[in-house]
Amino acid sequence: MTEDQQAKTRKRIILLGIASAVIALLLAFLTLGFYEFYKLKEETVNKLESQTDMLIFGVGPALMFDDRDSADKTLESLRSDRSINRVRIYNTKGQEFTSFIALDQDGDIHFKKDIIYQNEKIGRLEIDARYVGFVDRFRNYFIIILIIFIFSIPITFILSAPLRNQVSKAVGQLSELTTRLEQSNGELETLLYIVSHDLKEPLRSIEYFSTSVKEEYFNKLDDKGKDYFDRVILAASRMRLLLDDILMMSRARRMKPPDEMVNGENIINDALARLEGKIKQVNARITIAKEFPKYKVERMWATQAVLNLIANALKFTNEGEVPNIEICPYNEKGQTGIMVSDRGPGVPPEHTRKIFELFQRAVERKVEGTGAGLAIVLEVAHRHNGDAWVQPREGGGSEFIITFAKA
């Protein structure tokens, strides 16, 4: 990691610390604000209840004896209270007896209470009030929080210095390890490609000369010699298939990111077209769903993966039965892809993951193939931020599924 990158990392850590402090102080500010508002509301209600009792005590006799001047003097004492908008006093007939209006509008609190004088209801008192003082309290808290924030910046900077250095060093080491790993993987992929490619040339020579010698000198060989040549040719052929699969796996790992939307039907049709001869040879029955969504995929590799799944279903059948395959969209558990179902012998539970490993097979070698097909399917799925797996099919057989990232 360069010094410039380390400086950027330290800067990010500082900004992260400041952002964390801001968020924490903001949450504290809001919490205190809600608390103060609740407290102010409670205080205002308690004060209004006390004021109401005092007003009733003062205006009760005035209302009883129809003394408006005395009642007005009592209400005038409210003028110094900024929380009171207006007060109205009504007689028993619901007629307004007198009122005090500081602000003629509805308040935050509307309070009503009957006026009782000598155990007799003689009227009703109504008060409209508002919350006052909240802004002042809020401003005070804001100033306190602002002062804390100003002082917290240098404190955070000082206290986080050791952590910044440690994290910067760790990030640098991780970056170097990642770079080395990427280089190693790249070199390994290149080596794998070169080796598998270059080995095919001498392998073709072995196949060619072995076949030529067998054809020319076949009658001069005894049974053991013929068997030896058959084994050499078969081993060379299998080696060639293994190298082809290694090359394909290497190319799959070099796949470019998917960048086009492809209709699922086109992927299925491309795969079936390449398998047309094999399908006719085994007289397979294939059922395809009517509608498929579009997938964001690299078309060539998505087709290859589906082809491998269909070829697998064509290969593994119950004795005496023709392949019976269904192909449909898969859209469950938030994943989308393609499912290829068969009525074959199924996959033992202990082999459901093993068969997706390179050159790992759950059957004997008498069944054609190298054991790389499903590994390539899994690699293609991973390159599309998806997955591949097999699950039992109801009624017998297996369901092979490949998913792709949602577009």
Characterise the protein shown here.
By secondary structure, the protein is an alpha+beta fold. It has 3 domains: 3-159, no CATH class; 167-253, Signal transduction histidine kinase, dimerisation/phosphotransfer (DHp) domain (Helix Hairpins, Orthogonal Bundle); 260-404, Histidine kinase-like ATPase, C-terminal domain (Heat Shock Protein 90). Helices cover 57% and strands 18% of the residues. It has 9 helices and 11 strands. The protein has helices at residues 3-64, 68-76, 134-159, 161-217, 223-253, 264-274, 276-282, 299-315, 373-383, and strands at 84-91, 96-101, 109-117, 120-129, 260-263, 285-288, 294-297, 324-332, 335-341, 388-392, 398-404. The strands form 3 sheets. It has a 5-stranded mixed β-sheet with strand order 6-8-9-11-10. The radius of gyration is 43 Å and the shape is elongated. The two termini are 35 Å apart. 23% of the residues are buried. The mean pLDDT is 81.
